[in-house]
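Input sequence (212 aa), recorded before submission:
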Amino acid sequence: MNIIEITLKLLLAVALGGLVGLERETSQKPAGFRTNILICVGSAMMMILSGLVLGAEGTDLTRIAAGVITGIGFIGAGTIIQARGSIVGLTTAATLWAMAGLGLVIGAGYYLVAVIFTAIIILTLVIFRYIEDYFLKGSSYLYQLTAKYSKDLLVNIKKLAFHDGFKFEQISLKKEGNLAVVTLSFQTTEEKEQKFNAGLLNLSEVIEIKIE
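Predicted structure, token format:
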């Protein structure tokens, strides 16, 4: 394996890892563009290195791959959060695990397989998300918030909803002195509603949440 082939493998890992990273970044997930690239490139480099150093000695390279996949589990575990009885971040952790696998495939020299694998990952993250939202719309919720008034209040609330993957059917704000009463109505799954609720509680402006 010469330096040109190694460089091309690493560049391919950057490109394919970057495609998945862009989707994660636009979805405002914790592990975004650079994280996915680094994991993909790092895994590819481990496979390349194992081939350079150990391949000539007849060492089973699958043991290196298994070590990488096991190691990436610790990073994935760091993206999983338990809040208010709901576990979130599993998709992000699974994506990082898949990125490690993608890097190993590239490092092993299976370029066409790597491209197909990347397409399947992106298809799962993008297309299937819309299918999931369509068939699993969940329940309707009506929120009434009492909060300290600020010009960024609605913007911050909308950001939370966007991050959790749903849109408001109705949103209004009524100012009452230094306070504001915000009415929200939306439809989503129970998991996403719990994440949104937890996010609202972390906003410094929010004083009280009523759910009808």
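Checked by second reader. The chain has seven helices and six strands.
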